Amino acid sequence: MTSGQSEVGIGYRQFEGGNVSRQSEGGNGSEQSEGGNGSGQSETEAVNTAPRQKIFVIFDDDGRPVGDKAAEYSSRLGEYSRAHASITHHRWKDVSDDGKKLIWKRISDEYDLSGTTKEKVMAKANEYWRKYKSSTLRKVYDKYRTDEERKRHCPNSIRKEYWEKFVDNESTEEAKALRVNGKCSREAAVAQQRSGRKGSAIIAHELKEKNHNTPVMRTHVYVALHTTSDGTCPTEKHSDKMVRIKEIAANTPSSTMLDMDHDPVALVMGSDTKGCYRGLGSGVSRK
């Protein structure tokens, strides 16, 4: 919890405006050797580049970007993650320290990150890197039936030797089992988010901006995340649960102010697990 955030009991969760930071325009990133800077400059040239004026961005109390510059900032961090963390690694912890330092160097040179922390920024870089491998690159991998075909169709933005190593990694029995388990988990999921690329932080910020005098709680964000613009829930399995959550909140408005073990979402959906809270995502405080 960052300084300036009010604490009203364990589990109490209200979304406030957040801390303000400034950021600067940056360059483009592309997949290349780990530790390269992705802009055509040498690392020495990148380090010696004079700082530029920074663009305005807002971070919420959990250090997540919100407001009209959030997407731009997130996109830039994703670019640098792809450029400096090699796809040949299985896990983020295997990425070289030099690669991670360069991601941090480039993003912190462009953005005043006083509204968040290095730990949170790099956790997001990890998330974007994993999503890049598991979605964008795996779509190419899945188009072909054999490893020989896959290796022949290396994406233009990736070095051939890196792509071949990625294909080898994805073709192990362990990797195949993880994909099967992931597919089963997605198919078994009752709730499907309907907010597109907007995450819970941006949804909460938008709700707060609509009415500054009304506290925005976890239940409000959860409902907004899982319903369409007309207020309906398109997922049949989840529809009854969403109706029940809304009924509890409407009949007992004070219930939305309860901690996350007793608010309407918890009463209907059950307890949260693994540090990821429904309507909030990961990397947030329960307070």
A few lines on this structure:
Helix content is 46%, strand content 8%.
Please explain how this structure is put together.
- The protein has 2 domains: 172 residues, no CATH class; 83 residues, no CATH class.
- By secondary structure, it is mainly alpha-helical.
- It is globular.
- Strand 6 and strand 7 form a beta hairpin.
- It has 11 helices and 7 strands.
- The strands form 3 sheets. It has a 3-stranded antiparallel beta sheet with strand order 2-3-4. Strands 1-5 form a two-stranded antiparallel sheet. Strands 6-7 form a two-stranded antiparallel ribbon.
- Helix content is 46%, strand content 8%.
- It holds the Pfam family Transposase_24.
Task: Give the helices and strands, then pairings.
Elements: E1 14-15, E2 19-24, H1 43-47, E3 54-59, E4 65-66, H2 70-84, H3 97-110, H4 118-142, H5 147-152, H6 160-170, H7 173-188, H8 200-210, E5 216-217, H9 218-225, H10 236-251, H11 264-269, E6 276-277, E7 281-282
Antiparallel strand pairs: 1-5, 2-3, 3-4, 6-7
Helix pairs in contact: 2-3, 2-4, 8-9
